[in-house]
UniProtKB/TrEMBL annotation:
Keyword set, alphabetical order: Cytoplasm
Function: Required for resistance to DNA-damaging agents.
InterPro entries from the UniProt entry: UspA
Subcellular location: Cytoplasm
Gene3D superfamilies according to UniProt: 3.40.50.12370
Similarity comment: family membership: Belongs to the universal stress protein A family.
UniProt protein name: Universal stress protein E
Native organism: Affinibrenneria salicis
């Protein structure tokens, strides 16, 4: 399993409170390890300053980087004084998600933490385009931290795919449960629940086939999912009360159960589909997290290949 001891925190440049940094400190105080506070910055106006010579523009960049580095140091001051190891790095880069992923790869980080903003009125987590890129393309697990206090006795809810059509889901399910249980034991003995969703009867089938019995179909589908869930929980010695098989779409079932259980975090597998496959097949993780009100940990399968090539890297100088 991942050690989660070399953490990269993507700093939010727009506010002084840094929930992702706070969560990272919480982890290293229990697991050990170190943190890198990382901020990519870019101001297009500096690139358009044609009246300045290139070396003068470079000095302006350097000044901005130094100012931001000092600002992050102030955010980290209390933790540094408490003995937490935190490195600070600020780079000039026009695409934040590329800079972050490049840093994950070059620094061999095993966990990325980033703040997810909370919508005050709806209480739903709001994800930015940078967040989506990271969830799809970052090779290490991505922990999206909600800017709200961790709920009292908050549980961990692992969303598993119990359908057997795609063979990649079985090892990913094992990985999700293994890593969540290990993290729960190491951090605070968090109670871990598993949830799987199964589809309802397609309305058009029930209409077009007069002899079709929706009740029999639903029972058969539910039975298959219950058997798959039983097999999965028995591998880890989990009590049946900690597993849930619910009828409905994952984007409805998972957020509803997370709220009912007062989960502090939902753990999801992300296949990282991009391009046409994402458009036609859809990314379940993206549909689900639109409705979440808690932290999210997205984990890729072992055979995931980051779609960013070295040619896409941009100079940070």
């Amino acid at each position: 399993m991942a050690e989660y001891r070399n953490l990269l925190v993507a700093i939010d440049p727009n506010q002084d409170d840094q929930p992702a940094l706070r969560r990272a400190v919480y982890l290293v105080q229990r697991l050990g390890g170190r943190i890198k506070a990382f901020l990519p910055i870019y101001d297009f106006s500096y690139e358009m300053t044609t009246l300045l010579a290139p070396d003068e523009r470079m000095e302006m960049r350097k000044g901005v980087i130094e100012q931001r580095t000092e600002w992050i140091a102030q955010q980290c001051r209390y933790y540094l004084e408490a003995g937490v190891q935190i490195d600070i790095k600020v780079v000039w880069h026009s695409k934040p998600f590329e800079a972050i992923i490049n840093e994950v790869i070059s620094g061999q980080h095993d966990l990325l933490l980033k703040m997810a903003h909370q919508h005050d009125r709806l209480e739903a987590v709001i994800f930015t385009p940078t967040d989506w890129h990271l969830l799809r393309k970052c090779p290490c697990p991505v922990w999206m931290v909600k800017d709200q206090p961790w709920p009292e006795n908050g549980r961990a809810l692992v969303a598993v795919n119990l359908a057997s059509e795609d063979p990649c889901h079985d090892p990913l399910n094992i990985k999700l449960v293994t890593e969540t249980l290990a993290l729960a034991r190491q951090v605070n003995q968090t109670e871990v629940h598993l949830v799987g969703a199964y589809p309802v009867t397609p309305v058009n089938i029930a209409i077009e086939l007069p002899d079709f019995d929706p009740g029999v179909y639903n029972d058969a589908i539910r039975g298959q999912h219950l058997i798959a869930m039983k097999s999965l929980r028995q591998k880890f010695g989990l009590d049946e009360q900690l597993t849930h098989v619910e009828k409905g779409l994952p984007e409805e079932v998972i957020p509803d159960l997370a709220e009912h259980l007062q989960a502090g975090i939902v753990v999801l597998g992300s296949l990282g589909r991009t391009g046409l496959s994402a458009a036609f097949i859809g990314n379940t993780v993206e549909h689900v997290i639109d409705h979440l009100k808690c932290d999210l940990l997205a984990i890729k399968p072992d055979d995931f290949v980051c779609p960013l090539s070295p040619d896409e890297e941009e100079s940070a100088s």
